[in-house]
Amino acid sequence: MDSTIAKLLDKAADGGRLSPDEGLRLLECHDLAALGRAADAVTRRLHPESYRTYNIDRNVNYTNICTAVCDFCAFFRKPKDAGGYVLERSELLQKIQETVDLGGDQILMQGGLHPEFPLEWYEELLRDIKSHFPQVNVHGFSPPEIHHFTKLSKLPLKTVLERLRAAGLGSLPGGGAEILVDRVRKELTRGKVLTDDWLNVNHVWHELGGRSTATMMFGHVETLAERIEHLERLRQLQDETGGFTAYICWTFQPGYEMAHLSAAGSFEYLKTQAVSRLYLDNFANIQSSWVTQGLKIGQIALLYGANDMGSLMIEENVVAAAGTVHYLTLDEMRGAITELGYTPRRRNVFYELIDEAPLEPVAA
Q1: pLDDT at residue 221 above 90?
Q2: How far apart are CA 195 and CA 230, in angstroms?
Q3: Most exposed: 74, 95, 130, 356, by fewest CB within 10 Å?
């Protein structure tokens, strides 16, 4: 191994902060085993506990109607397209009931950028959910949606977020980040929030005391340097607010107008996640992406920087629309953690353990 790479890996493993140039050097490195060892060292330093975590939730897409055009998205429909839908309230509540019956305590609720619904529609939606299921956290409305709400309502971002929180919004998902570099965003999408506004939604939400997750979808038109720029923007915001609970990266799934591109493989996924763990020194948690990678690579990701298997994901529609469909049972998810020598523990979106600790064996 190159001595410079070895020094960078040692630096990061010991808690040193990588510069963007150093992060790029690591992304350009093809020694996957070495990257994995260093990322795992960081994970074990941050999480010396004997368990690894997961949660149970459901991805509820309340509408697929969207005014934005994302070349990679096979899920959305234009406002007048056939196949566009808005979930009936009764059906949405039934989906939440099914989630609760399976032990879930959260829904991940996202939709398209609907051109007509006023802010009051979303407030009523949240109040309906919370009146029926006060125990369920609504991890809802990605930054592009929130930014869209401000445009339709002509209200300040802070006001929109305060009103949604008062109506029952619990936390923000990190959807719609893709790559937080405007060159990439403009090539991939039209009519969708750019980098600074995506970050600002999170910034204001964090200032209000809210928590959110951060994501990256990679392996399409971005350069390696732009992946690092994305990580740098996230790290800077986390330095300012500390409001991100976790980071999740996944590979672009070819579909829609970008079906001609090849999907990045498991090597690129594990490498990028490992470098993300080394670079994001102020993020406590990293989730595996078994939804795009499948069970085995999702499990191996726990050795490449992740400390969490993510969600059981009772329902998932967006990735599935692009043709990638992986499902796990609870036993499979727990078994994947156990096979690595860890105890599986269930947590909520705030990374608070919500199961009972397993009994320690009694000494003879």
Answers
A1: yes
A2: 9
A3: 356
